[in-house]
Every structure is written in structure tokens, then in C-alpha cells.
Amino acid sequence: MEYYVIIPAHNEEAYLKLALESITLQTLPPKKVVVVNDNSTDNTEKIIDEYTSSIPYIQKLNTTSSNIHLPGSKVVNAFQSGLKLLDEKYDFLVKLDADIILPADYFEKTAQIFSKRKKVGIAGGFAYEQNEKKEWKLNHPMDTNHVRGAFKAYSKKCFNTIGGLKRAMGWDTVDELLAQFHGFEVYTDDTLKVKHLRPTGKGYNAKAKLLQGKAMYSMRYGFWITLVASIKMAYLSKNAKVFIDNLTGYLDAQRKKEKFLVTKKEGKFIRSFRWKKIKSKLMT
């Protein structure tokens, strides 16, 4: 199977080389890798140039956007810029962060998933982060059938069917919900252990704290699902302020009548899907 990789990169000099090196070591090499240098002010571009000069399938794209590190729109905008350089001659498409290290067989196994499981639309492994003792530990705050936004692979059919990635916080949740709305499966492989070099959310601007609640509003969760989800997030993060920020963001978006990311029909499916998940967990 053939695949493309797009890597949005903003000031990633501390990690990018390790990420690119892990790609060059893949047992199933990519057809093309587009590294989007998104308004970097450090040595990110220099590192990209080192690889483009020696690895023919790695390509650089310079873009200029905001230097504020907000989750969602900035990274997806960079991704979309890279997507414009690619054609439709691929089997699956990968959105990859610049701060990860992949195992050498990551994409070979991903290709096998898509090849053997025709209903799978989104696939990936699990993230491991170093603790204070420098031990690599599983860090997967979402459900085990969720693929982290740092390393998401989409079949071409699924990616086109869901209309690509949404330019907003919550893009890496709504994509899976829409995939399932359209009959695709989300598949995770716990043997694919990805090293995530930077803790989730580190470096985000302070303005990002309300965006999670706004995302829940835009996905048409409704108040009660947002309430339950926010309680869970606060519990897992051991931070009560997460609960307050989420609800504040949700109510603020509701007051401003922000645009929805999904249609009413999709929203109805999403709420039903979420309630089933909640009820199944309460019964176990």
C-alpha cells in the first residue's frame, strides 16, 4: 500500500530530527512526506532542509500563520496547506506531529490494518510519554478505541467521505465520530507504541483553556453530555479547573451562537453514540 505523510511543524527544533529519523527507518517507506514549516523562528527549517537534501520523498513547504500555539485551527491549517501538494494516488493518508518517534514497523502494520480490515477508516497506535523517572509510560486519556491526533492514519475513502479535517479544536474527535456516522471503524493497535516527546498540551496559549468546551458545543454534544465529559476530564487530569473551563467555554459558545462543525443529523448520531458509551461504562 502507498501512503502520504503530512507533518505540521512550528518551532520544533528540539524534536523534529528524531521524528524524521524514525520515518526514514520505516520498513514500509512513505510515498511522500510533506513537512509544513509553519512560521517557525528557530532552526526547524534548517533541519527540514538537511533531510530534503538527502531523502527524495521528503518535501518542505513554508507557510506563514499566527505564532500563537493554539490547538486545532493552526495545526489543521498547516495540514491543509501540505495536502494541496499531494494527489489522490494513495491508499492512506497520515497526519503526524513533529514531536513523536515511531517504531520502525509502524506504517507496515498500519498498512496491514487497512488491507485486512476493509471497514477501518482511521487507524493508529498508542502514545507513551516519559515520567519523572524517565520511564516510558502509556498516556492515553481517551477511550482505547481513540487514535491520538499526533499520529492519525485515514483510508482515502474515509478521509474524503468525512470531508477532511475540521479547522477547529476537537478536529481529532469529530473526525472519528463522523467516520463512524458514515459506517467506518476506528481501529487501534496496542503493539504500535509511539514515543510522544512533549507532554500533551504543553506550549498551548492560555486562550486555549476554553476551546475544549467550545468544541463540545460545536460537535452538538448538548449540555448534559458536555457536563459528564467535563467531569471525566477533570477527574482524569486531577484538575477541577478543567471542569469549570469546559463549561465556561461551552456556555460562551452557546451564547455567541458559534457555528457547528456537524449537521443536525450528524449531531443526533453523535449524541446517541455518546450516551451509549456513557451507559455502557456505567454498567461495567
Task: Please give a handful of descriptors for the protein shown.
glycosyltransferase; 2 domains; single chain; Nucleotide-diphossugar_trans; Spore Coat Polysaccharide Biosynthesis Protein SpsA, Chain A; globular; transferase; alpha/beta; 284 residues; Glycosyltransferase family 2 protein; 9 strands
Describe the SSE topology:
Blueprint: E1 3-9, H1 16-24, E2 32-38, H2 44-52, E3 58-63, H3 73-83, E4 92-96, E5 100-101, H4 106-116, E6 120-130, E7 136-138, E8 151-155, H5 156-161, H6 171-181, E9 185-196, H7 211-218, H8 223-237, H9 240-256, H10 264-282
Helix pairs in contact: 7-9, 8-9
Keywords: Glycosyltransferase, Transferase
Enzyme class: transferase
InterPro entries: Glyco_trans_2-like, Nucleotide-diphossugar_trans
What would you note in describing this structure?
With 284 residues, the protein is α/β, with parallel strands linked by helices. It contains ten helices and nine strands. The protein has two domains: 194 residues, Spore Coat Polysaccharide Biosynthesis Protein SpsA, Chain A; 76 residues, no CATH class. A hairpin with a 5-residue loop joins β6 and β7. α7 crosses α9. The longest helix has 19 residues.
